[in-house]
Design a protein that fits this description.
It is built from five helices and no strands. The protein is globular, with a radius of gyration of 12 Å.
């Protein structure tokens, strides 16, 4: 899959330069119009797991990829 420059920049931001505990996922979720419950159903996680990710309490790569995919973000 090829990426545009903006995709590459977003991927780098998601995986390397955003400190744990930032609200990148919350902002992306809200931009999509999803509640935490909506996102949990969409990506197969619990609401508590979504909240943990948004607070930076759980940086499981598998969970990050699932949420990124559900929000239409690059998963790299």
């Amino acid at each position: 899959m090829s990426h545009t420059g903006s995709d590459h920049t977003l991927a780098q931001t998601c995986t390397s330069s955003v400190p744990v505990g930032t609200d990148l996922f919350r902002q992306a979720r809200e931009a999509k119009g999803y509640s935490r419950e909506d996102l949990a159903v969409t990506c197969g996680l619990t609401v508590d797991e979504i909240e943990d990710l948004e607070l930076g309490n759980n940086a499981s790569p598998a969970h990050l990829r699932r949420v990124a995919a559900a929000l239409g973000l690059p998963s790299e």
